[in-house]
Amino acid sequence: MDVSYILDSLNQAQREAVGAAQGSLLVLAGAGSGKTRVLTHRVAWLVQACQVSPLSILAVTFTNKAAQEMKGRIEQMLGYPMRGMWVGTLHSVAHRMLRAHWQEAGLQQGFQILDSDDQIRLIKRTLKELNLDEGYWPPRQIQWYIHGHKEEGRRPGHIAEGIDPQQRELRRIYQSYEQLCQRFGLVDFSELLLRAYELIKNNEPLRARYQERFQHVLVDEFQDTNAVQYEWLRLFAAKHGNIFVVGDDDQSIYSWRGARIENILQFERDFPNTNVVRLEQNYRSTGNILSIANAVIDHNQSRMGKKLWTRGDQGDPVRLYVAYNEMDEARFVLDRIQSWVEQGHARSEVAILYRSNAQSRVFEEVLMQVNMPYRVYGGLRFFERAEIKDALAYLRLIASRQDDPSFERIVNMPTRGIGNRTLEQVRDYARINQVSLWDASRALIHGSELSARVISSLGRFIDLIERLAHQVEEQTLADQVEQVLQLSGLLAHFAKDKGEKAQGRVENLEELITAARNYEHDTEEGLDPLPAFLSHAALESGEGQGEEWQDCVQLMSLHSAKGLEFPLVFLTGLEEGLFPHQRSLQEQGRLEEERRLCYVGMTRAMQALYISYAEVRRLYGRESYASPSRFLSEIPSEMLSIVRGGIRTELAPSIGDVESSDNHQVKLGGRVRHNSFGDGVVLSVEGRGEHTRVQVNFESVGNKWLVLAYANLEKL
Ligand code: ATP
Ligand code: MG
After folding, report:
1. Is 604 labeled as catalytic in the residue annotation?
2. 61 has catalytic annotation
3. pLDDT for res 659
């Protein structure tokens, strides 16, 4: 077979990496220089040129979207689907391994994955069991503490007891939390990795088996591996030593989750004959985009240091939009997207990036107003919506009765007369007898502590779950979901409320049936569809929303944009305190990480990049005036062309419909008075002439759209 096609589309340095002999190899290179391309070509090369079986390849990356792309690129190159190859996120690979070896890993067969919310709930319960006050021991901080240790591979037993009472107590909480997880068959995100690592490390035969199997280990975004992940990957590669890692120190953005940039240096020590390849030519972005990205990242002290260059065009200037407020920012972005789409481009070529997930809401609002399809990655995603979690909790309890967080969530949802007092009794019983809430309820029903009324409502709940479990046994996944939605009373509960919000919830629940139907059960893992689907919901949240077939604008946090590229990018909210984030302002190290995040954001753009900030922003229910982000001042002014809210400047000829403020009697951010609505502030102006519409935020009635010609607004 002629395999030269694999090397044809690569430059010299890339070829060297892709066609390298066996052994360890490190590609250290800047954004858009083809690292991921090299990695996927390497896989194709191994399979086609070196006749390596797809089954002996393990290729990992960090986000679900990146993993999907990686899979897609490999399949495209090989021309056939890669069923047997292990390609995925580190979490999904760990999960797969634990499902296959749950027994060896000391887990329950139907173990469930705890997402962040469930985890907080379980931490609260742990505190209660230990008689500790939540006010004094904030659950979020405990969560950080536990993750922090797990990411470094430390169990409570590894932490020195010490003499500091605070530290001793934290350690004790961690320990009790672990016991609860173990008892109820629950696994949190960092546990997935730690458990999978311990499994391979401590189980000699299993380790030998996987070391034999994975003859080639490939890792994308290597700069963001944490201690456990690195050790785990190293174990796989220990026998053959064929490990191929690609990364960029300037894009390390997960140190707050334990990522260790030092792994790059450690790698060369652990694999002494490593071949290091550097790539400097960027194939992704225009010259103008690269210049500002380089200018910003240059302000970091601790860098391995490299410069990117491109043979491509300088391209359009990078534009900075100074918005009056967050609504103005969102409308500007929408306006640009609309012209982009009118020019015949796809919506999926557009990404709106932000520092905090909460920023997505305003963009969602304006996109929804004009029915522009969009998809949000990260943040409050489909599988995290309350009603979906309710439905999933039913399914989870059916899959495992020991799942206490699910029990708590639905025992009285929809309401069935099981009050807090009853629950307290159930919890007490569970605590004293060290059993699950489910078992406690059953015991109490047969005891004499509860009133007849309570016994009957609790009994009805227990019966309901048992009945459901029995009925769905032989059904397809989608039918199971539908059955549960009906019989649990959830659908009826939301359907009886005619409000828009409740209707939305009903639609979401119905969407869950579709999600179940579309869920392609990976038979290879030999799992029952229900637990597989539930894990999928916990692991892949975000991928299920929006319609697969629909061409959608992409909304995501900067963290989840890593590794991706888009022709048109909006980098929004460049305000001190928001980006760089408030928490990073005090510490040099964290500020540098924010700057890397900024660099990651800018280098996602291929053809056009818009940067924006708002002078006033309402976020988390508060309004604040912020100064522009320091990252903006790090860009030489001649590299940016500035567009001010609502005003067309000659620097920005393509800001089409945005009119100069003189053409209207009102101006953005101006105060106006309306006969019936009272005083307010103008948020946006759109259209022209008699079609001009304005959006005003009225003090008394909130946001309203008005046709300017009829509104009779008085300028204040
Ligand atoms: P990041 O650091 O953001 O993950 P990367 O180094 O992984 O970036 P890739 O995504 O692999 O970069 O490549 C960036 C873009 O450049 C892709 O569209 C890729 O197809 C293209 N590209 C890379 N190398 C070449 C090449 N030799 N010829 C043509 N296009 C290339
Ligand atoms: Mg990449």
Report:
1. yes
2. no
3. 35
